[in-house]
Amino acid sequence: MGQPVPARRASRRTGGVALALVGLAAFTIAQLGLRLWVRSKPRPIPYGWAWLLENPWRRRYRDPVRLAGACGLRSSDHVLEVGCGSGLFTPALAGRCAHLTALDIEARYLAQTAARTAGLPNVTLLHGDLLALPILAASMDAAVLISVLTEVPAPVEALRECVRVLRPGGRIMVGEEFFGPEYVLPRTVDNWAGAAGLRCIGKQGNGWAYLHIYEVI
Ligand SMILES: C[S@@+](CC[C@H](N)C(=O)[O-])C[C@H]1O[C@@H](n2cnc3c(N)ncnc32)[C@H](O)[C@@H]1O
């Protein structure tokens, strides 16, 4: 004789819950491991992961037009977008300033941004490293860094390098999001900015996806 049907159903449900818990634990451990590994040696996102930057779910909390608006750029600004990646934010940022220089260390990302900004007369593309910007001192009004600062091994030096290329009173916008494995808490970015001689003048978003605006002191 077999087991009564309700008992079999209950045991199947228990097995399903146990499997879900094991899956959740494995995911959490894998996430923790990935994040610790990435933070132990920050590096640029591999080109093969470009699809992560473009996924529609990300646009729900990082809508390019909203983000560009939140940066508070002025129509007369000359802006440097550092780590433009696939150019998700480049056209929207370019629409809010006089001129935008989009820079990345990975030439294949720049090619994607070039395709995306073809026909925009106020965009220049530049191949270079945030830690040694190929840009004249005091030539920019603002620098925008979305999900890039945490990819460099020396974030304070990176911010100082941005300060070097800014005019007096220049601003730096730093955005980070929990979705990225290199994520750091908002207060960590504030500490880096303070060490680089910047003062926070605006905060938007939340711990999941934030945007801080700093001014050169
Ligand atoms: C996570 S992606 C973000 C791209 C884009 N800002 C976005 O949010 O969709 C980081 C980008 O920064 C670039 N990057 C990383 N380290 C860099 C460095 N030292 N100098 C310039 N670009 C860098 C990477 O190549 C990559 O395109």
Outline the secondary-structure elements.
Layout (H helix, E strand, L loop, with lengths): L4 H36 L9 H5 L1 H6 L2 H7 L7 E5 L7 H5 L4 E6 L2 H11 L5 E5 L12 E7 L8 H11 E12 L8 H10 L2 E8 L3 E8 L1
Parallel strand pairs: 1-2, 1-4, 2-3, 4-5
Antiparallel strand pairs: 5-7, 6-7
This protein binds S-adenosylmethionine (SAM).
Please sum up the structure shown.
The protein has 217 residues and is of the alpha/beta class.
What does this molecule look like?
The chain is α/β, with parallel strands linked by helices. The chain has two domains: 1-41; 51-216, Rossmann fold (3-Layer(aba) Sandwich). It contains eight helices and seven strands. A seven-stranded mixed beta sheet has the order 3-2-1-4-5-7-6, sandwiched between helices. α6 (107-117) links the parallel β2 and β3. The protein is elongated, with a radius of gyration of 21 Å. The model has no long low-confidence stretch (mean pLDDT 94). S-adenosylmethionine is lined by residues 44-45, 53, 82-85, 88, 104-106, 109, 129-131, 146-148, 151-152, 180.
Radius of gyration: 21 Å
Bound molecules: S-adenosylmethionine
CATH homologous superfamily label of the largest domain: Vaccinia Virus protein VP39
The whole-number mean of residue pLDDT values reads 94
Major beta sheet, strand line-up: 3-2-1-4-5-7-6
Look at the structure and give the CATH class of the largest domain.
Alpha Beta
The CATH topology of the largest domain is given as Rossmann fold
- CA(first)-CA(last) distance: 82 Å
Q: How many β-strands, per DSSP?
A: 7
Helix/strand/pairing class, anyone?
alpha/beta
Count of the domains: 2
Q: What summary fits the major beta sheet?
A: 7 strands, mixed
Number of helices: 8
Strand portion: 15-25%
Quickly give the CATH architecture of the largest domain.
3-Layer(aba) Sandwich
String of helices and strands: HHHHEHEHEEHEHEE
Low-confidence stretches: none
Fraction of residues in helices? 40-55%
